[in-house]
């Protein structure tokens, strides 16, 4: 539900409020610390989280530095490192960026930037519906 709020806010105002990101961060950390599972229901070690964060930064930092990706999107992806395994996260990033590119080709956005978080939310929800690997 929180991802949906973030996606709608980003689609309307082209920004992601830090307050929503902090709530997602708190809930994600709480889940990991209290029930030892992520919000996606998988067990994540701190090494998995660190690997996910390094992967997110390696993949998205160039786009952020070129102003193709917003700071809110980058922070959202970093919080998602507390929810998904590294493989799930790479899959979500690949499919959400692909969907963003397709939407850019199909749509008539002109010079307007397309918000990324709705595509991230959609791919995250699809990932949550898939059975866990293994």
TrEMBL record:
TM region positions: 20-40, 46-65, 77-102, 114-133
Domain of life: Bacteria
Domain Prepilin type IV endopeptidase peptidase residues, every copy: 2-102
InterPro entries xrefs: Prepilin_IV_endopep_pep (IPR000045)
Keyword field: Hydrolase, Membrane, Transmembrane, Transmembrane helix
Keyword hit for Hydrolase: yes
GO molecular function annotation: aspartic-type endopeptidase activity
Pfam families xref list: Peptidase_A24
Name of this protein: Prepilin peptidase
Taxonomic placement: Bacteria, Pseudomonadati, Pseudomonadota, Gammaproteobacteria, Oceanospirillales
């Amino acid at each position: 539900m929180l991802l949906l709020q973030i996606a709608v806010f980003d689609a309307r105002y082209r920004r992601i409020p830090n307050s929503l990101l902090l709530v997602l961060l708190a809930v994600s950390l709480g889940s990991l610390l209290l029930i030892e599972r992520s919000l996606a229901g998988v067990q994540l070690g701190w090494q998995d989280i660190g690997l996910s964060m390094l992967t997110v930064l390696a993949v998205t930092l160039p786009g952020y530095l070129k102003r193709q990706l917003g700071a809110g999107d980058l922070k959202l992806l970093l919080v998602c490192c507390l929810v998904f395994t590294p493989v799930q996260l790479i899959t979500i990033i690949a499919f959400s960026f692909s969907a963003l590119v397709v939407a850019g080709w199909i749509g008539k956005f002109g010079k307007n930037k397309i918000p990324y978080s709705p595509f991230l939310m959609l791919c995250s929800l699809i990932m949550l519906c898939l059975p866990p690997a293994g």
